[in-house]
Amino acid sequence: MHSEILLVTLANAIAKKKVIELTAIALENDELFEQLLEFSFHPKPEVTFRAAWILENIYLANPQKFIPHLNWFLINFPQQQNSSARRNFAKILALITKKNAQKEIKEIVQQFKTDDIVETVFAWLIDDEVAVAIKSHCLNILANLSTKHNWIKDELLQTMNFLVDKESIAFYAKVKQIKKQLK
């Protein structure tokens, strides 16, 4: 798929069926995958969101596809300013940092200097303008990275205690789950 065709496709409303179709194509086409990474930072918010949505579906379908581009994703994660794309990016990162992630993915994350990511995720977590769905993924990311950065556990517990009364019931339930994970 040519870059111009993909851009026009992403600039218009697409249904889940089209996302699945583009995901299948990208799984077989490295050039399309790279275009989606690039478009996930496009100036048009709808292009950015739809590219990120497809990237999330690619990761869910085949995490291996991300391995050659994982450093790029980790480097660029803190620069994501599109609030809709942040949900997809945060979900991908929560999956990347999970205890049961693929060995190769875990090794890349372990070797990567994640300080900027941790700082960004904490900033999103305490930002009143950030949606609860993103904050939920942020909790997972920070809990997952607490094995790499020992200081995260205490800071995260304090932050959750501060936020729990300010956020929704769903957030409260997520906090309970994360506290269990941190024990």
Which key terms come to mind for this protein?
183 residues; mainly alpha; 2 domains; 11 helices; 72% helix; ARM-like; ARM-type_fold
Characterise this structure.
The chain is an all-alpha fold and 183 residues long. The chain folds into 2 domains: 69 residues, no CATH class; 101 residues. It is built from 11 helices and no strands. The protein is globular, with a radius of gyration of 17 Å.
Ends distance: 48 Å
**Count of β-strands:** 0
Sequence of secondary-structure elements: HHHHHHHHHHH
Please state the overall shape, judged from the principal axes of the Cα atoms.
globular
Strand content: under 5%
**What's the number of domains?**
2
The number of helical segments is: 11
Low-confidence stretches: none
The main pleated sheet reads as: none
Helix content: over 70%
Structural class, by secondary structure, is mainly alpha
Mean pLDDT: 95
Spatial extent as radius of gyration: 17 Å
Protein name: HEAT repeat domain-containing protein
Organism: Pedobacter cryotolerans
InterPro entries: ARM-like, ARM-type_fold
What is the gist of this entry?
The chain has 183 residues and is mainly alpha-helical.
Task: Detail the topology: elements first, then pairings.
Layout: H1 3-11, H2 16-28, H3 30-39, H4 45-61, H5 70-76, H6 83-96, H7 103-111, H8 115-126, H9 132-145, H10 151-163, H11 169-182
Helix pairs in contact: 2-3, 2-4, 3-4, 4-6, 6-9, 8-9, 9-11
